[in-house]
Amino acid sequence: MDKVITSNTSRAEVSAYTEIQGSLQVSPSRYLNKSGVLKESGQYVKSFGTRTLISGGIRALQALEDKLTHSLQQHAVSYEAHTFVGECCEENIKLIARKSREYKADVLIGVGGGKALDAAKAAANKCALPIICIPTIASTCSAASPASVLYDSKGGFLKSLYFPNTPELVLVEPSVIAKAPVDYFTSGILDALSKWYELKPIFSTIECPDLSTRSAMELSRLLKDVVHEKGASAVEAVHCGVTNAALVEIIDVNIFLTALIKCLSLFTLTIGLAHAIHNGLSFLKQTHDKAHGIKVGYGIAVQICVEGASEKEILHVFRLFRQIGFNPSLKTLGISVTTQNKEKIVANCIDDIGVKSMPIPISEEMILNGIDRVEDFAYQDIL
Ligand SMILES: [Zn+2]
To answer: Could you say which of 3.90.1150.10, 3.90.870.10, 1.20.1090.10, 3.40.30.10 is the CATH number of the domain covering 271-383?
Structure first.
Protein backbone atom coordinates (compact mmCIF):
# COMPACT_ATOMS: atom_id res chain seq x y z
CA MET A 1 0.00 0.00 0.00
CA ASP A 2 2.83 2.36 0.75
CA LYS A 3 4.42 1.81 -2.66
CA VAL A 4 4.44 5.21 -4.30
CA ILE A 5 6.06 6.89 -7.25
CA THR A 6 7.29 10.38 -6.56
CA SER A 7 7.87 13.18 -9.05
CA ASN A 8 11.58 12.50 -8.60
CA THR A 9 11.28 8.81 -9.45
CA SER A 10 13.55 7.81 -12.32
CA ARG A 11 12.13 6.43 -15.57
CA ALA A 12 13.62 2.99 -14.77
CA GLU A 13 11.86 2.88 -11.42
CA VAL A 14 8.62 4.00 -13.05
CA SER A 15 8.94 1.15 -15.57
CA ALA A 16 9.44 -1.34 -12.75
CA TYR A 17 6.35 0.06 -11.06
CA THR A 18 4.40 -0.30 -14.30
CA GLU A 19 5.29 -3.97 -14.33
CA ILE A 20 4.12 -4.33 -10.74
CA GLN A 21 0.80 -2.74 -11.69
CA GLY A 22 0.66 -4.63 -14.97
CA SER A 23 -2.18 -2.51 -16.34
CA LEU A 24 -3.46 0.95 -17.00
CA GLN A 25 -5.17 2.56 -14.05
CA VAL A 26 -8.05 4.90 -14.69
CA SER A 27 -9.33 7.10 -11.91
CA PRO A 28 -11.79 7.75 -10.33
CA SER A 29 -13.89 4.57 -10.27
CA ARG A 30 -17.11 6.59 -10.30
CA TYR A 31 -17.79 10.30 -10.79
CA LEU A 32 -21.03 12.24 -10.38
CA ASN A 33 -21.34 15.96 -11.06
CA LYS A 34 -24.98 16.92 -10.78
CA SER A 35 -27.34 19.12 -8.89
CA GLY A 36 -28.77 17.43 -5.76
CA VAL A 37 -26.06 14.77 -5.47
CA LEU A 38 -25.29 15.62 -1.81
CA LYS A 39 -28.85 14.88 -0.77
CA GLU A 40 -28.35 11.38 -2.21
CA SER A 41 -24.82 10.91 -0.86
CA GLY A 42 -25.74 8.45 1.93
CA GLN A 43 -27.11 6.06 -0.64
CA TYR A 44 -23.71 5.90 -2.35
CA VAL A 45 -21.63 5.85 0.83
CA LYS A 46 -23.52 2.93 2.37
CA SER A 47 -22.30 0.60 -0.36
CA PHE A 48 -18.83 0.89 1.27
CA GLY A 49 -19.93 0.23 4.85
CA THR A 50 -21.73 1.71 7.84
CA ARG A 51 -18.98 3.76 9.50
CA THR A 52 -17.11 6.68 7.98
CA LEU A 53 -14.61 9.31 9.01
CA ILE A 54 -15.20 12.65 7.25
CA SER A 55 -12.01 14.69 6.97
CA GLY A 56 -11.98 18.25 5.71
CA GLY A 57 -11.40 21.89 6.49
CA ILE A 58 -13.81 23.68 8.81
CA ARG A 59 -15.47 25.68 6.00
CA ALA A 60 -15.92 22.61 3.82
CA LEU A 61 -17.42 20.65 6.71
CA GLN A 62 -19.83 23.52 7.37
CA ALA A 63 -20.73 23.93 3.68
CA LEU A 64 -21.67 20.25 3.39
CA GLU A 65 -22.92 19.55 6.87
CA ASP A 66 -26.66 19.70 6.39
CA LYS A 67 -27.03 17.73 3.21
CA LEU A 68 -24.18 15.22 3.61
CA THR A 69 -24.67 14.30 7.26
CA HIS A 70 -28.46 14.28 6.94
CA SER A 71 -28.22 11.86 4.05
CA LEU A 72 -25.72 9.66 5.95
CA GLN A 73 -28.15 9.50 8.89
CA GLN A 74 -31.02 8.66 6.56
CA HIS A 75 -29.05 5.67 5.26
CA ALA A 76 -27.84 4.49 8.69
CA VAL A 77 -24.20 5.41 8.11
CA SER A 78 -22.56 6.61 11.34
CA TYR A 79 -19.82 9.20 11.04
CA GLU A 80 -17.20 11.20 12.86
CA ALA A 81 -15.81 14.49 11.55
CA HIS A 82 -12.13 15.36 11.63
CA THR A 83 -11.21 19.01 11.09
CA PHE A 84 -8.23 19.22 8.75
CA VAL A 85 -5.90 22.15 9.46
CA GLY A 86 -2.67 23.06 7.68
CA GLU A 87 -0.83 21.20 4.96
CA CYS A 88 -0.96 17.82 3.25
CA CYS A 89 2.09 16.74 5.27
CA GLU A 90 3.19 13.49 6.94
CA GLU A 91 1.90 14.62 10.34
CA ASN A 92 -1.62 15.33 9.04
CA ILE A 93 -1.74 12.15 6.97
CA LYS A 94 -0.76 10.04 10.00
CA LEU A 95 -3.34 11.85 12.16
CA ILE A 96 -6.21 11.14 9.73
CA ALA A 97 -5.08 7.52 9.34
CA ARG A 98 -4.95 7.09 13.13
CA LYS A 99 -8.43 8.61 13.61
CA SER A 100 -9.84 6.35 10.87
CA ARG A 101 -8.42 3.28 12.59
CA GLU A 102 -9.61 4.39 16.03
CA TYR A 103 -13.13 5.02 14.70
CA LYS A 104 -13.01 1.68 12.86
CA ALA A 105 -14.14 3.41 9.71
CA ASP A 106 -15.13 1.30 6.71
CA VAL A 107 -14.59 4.20 4.33
CA LEU A 108 -12.96 7.61 4.47
CA ILE A 109 -14.65 10.71 3.05
CA GLY A 110 -12.41 13.64 2.11
CA VAL A 111 -14.15 16.99 1.72
CA GLY A 112 -12.81 20.38 0.68
CA GLY A 113 -10.01 21.56 -1.55
CA GLY A 114 -6.82 20.01 -2.89
CA LYS A 115 -4.78 19.83 0.31
CA ALA A 116 -7.60 18.38 2.43
CA LEU A 117 -8.45 15.81 -0.25
CA ASP A 118 -4.79 14.95 -0.84
CA ALA A 119 -4.27 14.31 2.87
CA ALA A 120 -7.43 12.17 3.06
CA LYS A 121 -6.38 10.13 0.00
CA ALA A 122 -2.90 9.55 1.40
CA ALA A 123 -4.38 8.52 4.78
CA ALA A 124 -6.86 6.14 3.10
CA ASN A 125 -4.00 4.61 1.18
CA LYS A 126 -1.99 4.19 4.40
CA CYS A 127 -4.76 2.25 6.12
CA ALA A 128 -6.10 0.49 3.02
CA LEU A 129 -9.54 2.10 3.16
CA PRO A 130 -11.69 3.13 0.20
CA ILE A 131 -11.80 6.90 -0.28
CA ILE A 132 -14.72 9.06 -1.39
CA CYS A 133 -13.93 12.65 -2.39
CA ILE A 134 -16.39 15.52 -2.19
CA PRO A 135 -14.68 18.66 -3.51
CA THR A 136 -16.09 22.01 -2.38
CA ILE A 137 -13.89 23.89 -4.83
CA ALA A 138 -12.74 22.89 -8.33
CA SER A 139 -9.20 24.14 -7.99
CA THR A 140 -7.33 20.96 -8.98
CA CYS A 141 -8.07 17.42 -10.16
CA SER A 142 -7.18 16.14 -6.69
CA ALA A 143 -10.70 14.80 -6.01
CA ALA A 144 -10.44 12.36 -8.90
CA SER A 145 -6.75 11.51 -9.18
CA PRO A 146 -4.82 8.70 -7.46
CA ALA A 147 -2.13 11.15 -6.37
CA SER A 148 -1.32 13.62 -3.61
CA VAL A 149 1.13 16.48 -3.38
CA LEU A 150 3.17 16.19 -0.22
CA TYR A 151 4.41 19.35 1.53
CA ASP A 152 6.41 19.88 4.67
CA SER A 153 4.45 21.21 7.64
CA LYS A 154 5.40 24.78 6.66
CA GLY A 155 4.01 24.46 3.12
CA GLY A 156 7.22 23.82 1.15
CA PHE A 157 6.78 21.35 -1.73
CA LEU A 158 8.36 17.93 -1.08
CA LYS A 159 7.12 15.50 -3.73
CA SER A 160 4.11 14.02 -5.52
CA LEU A 161 2.84 10.63 -4.39
CA TYR A 162 1.00 8.24 -6.71
CA PHE A 163 -1.15 5.53 -5.16
CA PRO A 164 -2.26 2.13 -6.43
CA ASN A 165 -5.73 2.89 -4.98
CA THR A 166 -7.94 5.30 -6.92
CA PRO A 167 -10.76 7.34 -5.36
CA GLU A 168 -13.78 5.02 -5.37
CA LEU A 169 -16.29 7.80 -5.80
CA VAL A 170 -16.31 11.54 -6.49
CA LEU A 171 -19.44 13.55 -5.71
CA VAL A 172 -19.65 17.11 -7.05
CA GLU A 173 -22.49 19.49 -6.25
CA PRO A 174 -22.20 22.30 -8.87
CA SER A 175 -23.96 24.88 -6.67
CA VAL A 176 -21.31 24.41 -3.94
CA ILE A 177 -18.52 25.04 -6.48
CA ALA A 178 -20.42 28.09 -7.85
CA LYS A 179 -20.51 29.68 -4.40
CA ALA A 180 -16.81 29.13 -3.63
CA PRO A 181 -14.30 31.96 -4.20
CA VAL A 182 -13.69 32.48 -7.92
CA ASP A 183 -9.88 32.36 -7.55
CA TYR A 184 -10.09 28.66 -6.75
CA PHE A 185 -12.10 27.99 -9.89
CA THR A 186 -9.68 29.99 -12.05
CA SER A 187 -6.86 28.06 -10.40
CA GLY A 188 -8.50 24.79 -11.46
CA ILE A 189 -8.76 25.96 -15.06
CA LEU A 190 -5.09 26.98 -15.12
CA ASP A 191 -3.93 23.70 -13.58
CA ALA A 192 -6.04 21.82 -16.16
CA LEU A 193 -4.58 23.90 -19.01
CA SER A 194 -1.08 22.93 -17.91
CA LYS A 195 -1.84 19.45 -19.25
CA TRP A 196 -1.81 20.83 -22.79
CA TYR A 197 1.11 23.20 -22.37
CA GLU A 198 3.35 20.74 -20.51
CA LEU A 199 2.49 17.49 -22.26
CA LYS A 200 2.86 18.91 -25.77
CA PRO A 201 6.64 19.56 -25.64
CA ILE A 202 7.33 16.37 -23.67
CA PHE A 203 5.17 14.31 -26.07
CA SER A 204 7.31 15.59 -28.95
CA THR A 205 10.35 13.83 -27.44
CA ILE A 206 8.73 10.37 -27.53
CA GLU A 207 9.61 8.51 -30.72
CA CYS A 208 6.74 5.98 -30.75
CA PRO A 209 4.15 7.06 -28.20
CA ASP A 210 1.79 4.27 -27.14
CA LEU A 211 -1.98 4.53 -27.45
CA SER A 212 -2.63 5.72 -23.90
CA THR A 213 -0.01 8.47 -24.26
CA ARG A 214 -1.54 9.56 -27.58
CA SER A 215 -5.00 9.51 -25.98
CA ALA A 216 -3.72 11.75 -23.18
CA MET A 217 -2.33 14.16 -25.75
CA GLU A 218 -5.58 14.28 -27.76
CA LEU A 219 -7.66 14.76 -24.60
CA SER A 220 -5.35 17.61 -23.59
CA ARG A 221 -6.07 19.29 -26.91
CA LEU A 222 -9.81 18.86 -26.31
CA LEU A 223 -9.40 20.22 -22.78
CA LYS A 224 -7.66 23.35 -24.09
CA ASP A 225 -10.38 23.87 -26.75
CA VAL A 226 -13.22 23.54 -24.21
CA VAL A 227 -11.52 26.04 -21.90
CA HIS A 228 -11.22 28.50 -24.81
CA GLU A 229 -14.92 28.00 -25.67
CA LYS A 230 -16.49 27.96 -22.22
CA GLY A 231 -13.92 29.02 -19.61
CA ALA A 232 -14.95 32.69 -19.48
CA SER A 233 -18.69 31.88 -19.22
CA ALA A 234 -18.05 29.39 -16.41
CA VAL A 235 -15.93 31.92 -14.49
CA GLU A 236 -18.71 34.48 -14.93
CA ALA A 237 -21.19 32.01 -13.39
CA VAL A 238 -18.94 31.60 -10.32
CA HIS A 239 -18.62 35.39 -10.07
CA CYS A 240 -22.43 35.52 -9.85
CA GLY A 241 -22.67 32.44 -7.60
CA VAL A 242 -24.98 30.64 -10.03
CA THR A 243 -24.72 27.44 -12.05
CA ASN A 244 -24.90 27.20 -15.83
CA ALA A 245 -24.04 24.56 -18.43
CA ALA A 246 -20.56 26.02 -18.99
CA LEU A 247 -19.82 25.80 -15.27
CA VAL A 248 -20.82 22.13 -15.08
CA GLU A 249 -18.66 21.35 -18.12
CA ILE A 250 -15.62 23.23 -16.84
CA ILE A 251 -15.96 21.44 -13.47
CA ASP A 252 -15.70 18.20 -15.47
CA VAL A 253 -12.62 19.62 -17.19
CA ASN A 254 -10.94 20.72 -13.95
CA ILE A 255 -11.62 17.53 -12.04
CA PHE A 256 -12.51 14.55 -14.22
CA LEU A 257 -10.80 15.18 -17.55
CA THR A 258 -7.56 16.38 -15.97
CA ALA A 259 -7.40 13.31 -13.70
CA LEU A 260 -8.10 11.04 -16.66
CA ILE A 261 -5.27 12.62 -18.66
CA LYS A 262 -2.98 12.26 -15.66
CA CYS A 263 -3.75 8.54 -15.45
CA LEU A 264 -3.35 7.90 -19.17
CA SER A 265 0.01 9.65 -19.23
CA LEU A 266 1.30 8.62 -15.81
CA PHE A 267 4.20 6.47 -16.97
CA THR A 268 5.21 8.28 -20.12
CA LEU A 269 4.59 11.99 -19.62
CA THR A 270 5.69 13.91 -16.59
CA ILE A 271 5.36 17.49 -15.40
CA GLY A 272 7.03 20.23 -17.42
CA LEU A 273 8.48 23.64 -16.73
CA ALA A 274 5.16 25.17 -15.61
CA HIS A 275 4.91 22.86 -12.58
CA ALA A 276 8.65 23.19 -11.92
CA ILE A 277 8.12 26.95 -11.62
CA HIS A 278 5.22 26.25 -9.26
CA ASN A 279 7.45 24.04 -7.15
CA GLY A 280 10.09 26.77 -7.03
CA LEU A 281 7.50 29.40 -6.08
CA SER A 282 6.21 27.26 -3.23
CA PHE A 283 9.44 27.97 -1.31
CA LEU A 284 8.60 31.70 -1.20
CA LYS A 285 6.29 32.22 1.73
CA GLN A 286 4.52 35.14 -0.02
CA THR A 287 2.93 32.55 -2.35
CA HIS A 288 1.62 30.22 0.35
CA ASP A 289 -1.85 31.75 0.30
CA LYS A 290 -2.03 31.50 -3.51
CA ALA A 291 -3.87 28.52 -4.98
CA HIS A 292 -1.81 25.80 -6.71
CA GLY A 293 -3.19 26.55 -10.18
CA ILE A 294 -2.50 30.27 -9.92
CA LYS A 295 1.20 29.45 -9.50
CA VAL A 296 0.98 26.83 -12.26
CA GLY A 297 -0.72 29.40 -14.54
CA TYR A 298 2.18 31.75 -13.93
CA GLY A 299 4.46 28.79 -14.71
CA ILE A 300 2.68 28.26 -18.06
CA ALA A 301 3.35 31.91 -18.92
CA VAL A 302 7.05 31.57 -18.05
CA GLN A 303 7.30 28.25 -19.88
CA ILE A 304 5.96 29.50 -23.21
CA CYS A 305 8.31 32.49 -23.00
CA VAL A 306 11.27 30.18 -22.27
CA GLU A 307 10.22 27.97 -25.20
CA GLY A 308 10.60 31.00 -27.46
CA ALA A 309 6.92 31.34 -28.42
CA SER A 310 6.17 34.19 -30.83
CA GLU A 311 4.53 37.37 -29.57
CA LYS A 312 1.32 36.30 -31.33
CA GLU A 313 1.30 32.93 -29.52
CA ILE A 314 2.03 34.55 -26.18
CA LEU A 315 -0.75 37.10 -26.65
CA HIS A 316 -3.18 34.29 -27.54
CA VAL A 317 -2.50 32.61 -24.18
CA PHE A 318 -2.43 35.85 -22.18
CA ARG A 319 -5.78 36.91 -23.69
CA LEU A 320 -7.40 33.68 -22.51
CA PHE A 321 -5.84 34.19 -19.08
CA ARG A 322 -7.27 37.71 -18.86
CA GLN A 323 -10.72 36.45 -19.98
CA ILE A 324 -10.78 34.06 -17.03
CA GLY A 325 -9.60 36.84 -14.71
CA PHE A 326 -5.92 35.95 -14.40
CA ASN A 327 -2.98 38.24 -15.11
CA PRO A 328 0.29 36.31 -14.79
CA SER A 329 2.89 38.42 -13.02
CA LEU A 330 5.00 38.33 -9.88
CA LYS A 331 2.72 41.00 -8.42
CA THR A 332 -0.31 38.68 -8.83
CA LEU A 333 1.61 36.15 -6.73
CA GLY A 334 2.39 38.73 -4.06
CA ILE A 335 6.10 38.80 -4.92
CA SER A 336 7.99 42.06 -5.41
CA VAL A 337 9.95 42.25 -8.66
CA THR A 338 13.52 42.07 -7.36
CA THR A 339 16.56 40.27 -8.75
CA GLN A 340 16.86 38.40 -5.45
CA ASN A 341 13.29 37.05 -5.65
CA LYS A 342 13.67 36.04 -9.29
CA GLU A 343 16.94 34.22 -8.55
CA LYS A 344 15.31 32.47 -5.60
CA ILE A 345 12.54 31.10 -7.82
CA VAL A 346 15.08 29.87 -10.36
CA ALA A 347 17.39 28.32 -7.73
CA ASN A 348 14.44 26.44 -6.24
CA CYS A 349 13.26 24.97 -9.54
CA ILE A 350 16.35 24.43 -11.72
CA ASP A 351 16.93 20.84 -10.52
CA ASP A 352 13.23 19.90 -10.73
CA ILE A 353 12.27 16.99 -12.96
CA GLY A 354 9.90 19.38 -14.76
CA VAL A 355 12.91 21.33 -16.03
CA LYS A 356 14.80 18.21 -17.06
CA SER A 357 11.81 16.72 -18.89
CA MET A 358 11.59 19.58 -21.38
CA PRO A 359 12.90 18.80 -24.89
CA ILE A 360 15.49 21.57 -24.82
CA PRO A 361 18.16 22.07 -22.15
CA ILE A 362 17.01 24.91 -19.91
CA SER A 363 19.48 27.15 -18.12
CA GLU A 364 18.93 29.43 -15.16
CA GLU A 365 19.41 32.42 -17.46
CA MET A 366 16.63 31.21 -19.79
CA ILE A 367 14.17 31.03 -16.89
CA LEU A 368 15.21 34.47 -15.64
CA ASN A 369 14.64 35.86 -19.15
CA GLY A 370 11.24 34.11 -19.25
CA ILE A 371 10.25 35.70 -15.94
CA ASP A 372 11.23 39.14 -17.31
CA ARG A 373 9.28 38.56 -20.53
CA VAL A 374 6.14 37.68 -18.56
CA GLU A 375 6.54 40.94 -16.61
CA ASP A 376 6.71 42.85 -19.93
CA PHE A 377 3.35 41.42 -21.02
CA ALA A 378 1.72 41.76 -17.60
CA TYR A 379 1.22 45.49 -17.94
CA GLN A 380 0.16 45.58 -21.60
CA ASP A 381 -3.39 46.27 -22.71
CA ILE A 382 -3.90 43.04 -24.65
CA LEU A 383 -7.65 42.35 -24.75
ZN1 LIG B 1 -0.97 20.82 -10.86
So the answer is: 1.20.1090.10
